[in-house]
Amino acid sequence: TNPLAADTASLPQVGLESGYLTLTYTKVTTATDIQYAVEQSSDLTNWTTSSPTNEIVATRDNLQTIKAKVALNGATQLFLRLRITRP
């Protein structure tokens, strides 16, 4: 998205559906030098890279909306965050 224009609609959104915690975010498909990783934590201190099931929700121009689904597996609390890096 445009870094010079505020747009809260483009921020990642968290949801809950059928035993999965979801994180929906926008990915720039033409930015090949950027890596996206969903991370998870049960305590907001220790984070690990998650292996979510990714679903492409929409594609418009060079932007994809992706819903990453992480199984709760009986967890009483689970947190997700999106790490975007340029290696």
List keywords for this structure.
7 strands; mainly beta; four-stranded antiparallel sheet; three-stranded antiparallel sheet; globular; 87 residues
Describe this structure in words.
- This protein has 87 residues and is mainly β.
- It is 0% helix and 54% strand.
- The protein is built from no helices and 7 strands.
What integer value in Å does the Rg equal? 14 Å
Q: Average pLDDT across residues?
A: 92
Straight-line distance between termini? 20 Å
Order of helices and strands: EEEEEEE
Shape: globular
How many β-strand stretches? Answer: 7
Biggest sheet layout: 4 strands, antiparallel
For this entry, what is the oligomeric state of its chains?
single chain
Spatial strand sequence of the major β-sheet: 1-2-6-5
How much of the sequence is in beta strands? over 45%
Total DSSP helices: 0
Uncertain parts: none
Structural class: mainly beta
Helix content: under 10%
List the helices and strands and how they pair.
Elements (H helix, E strand, L loop, with lengths): L12 E5 L2 E9 L6 E7 L6 E2 L3 E8 L2 E9 L7 E7 L2
How would you sum up this structure in a few lines?
The chain is mainly beta and 87 residues long.
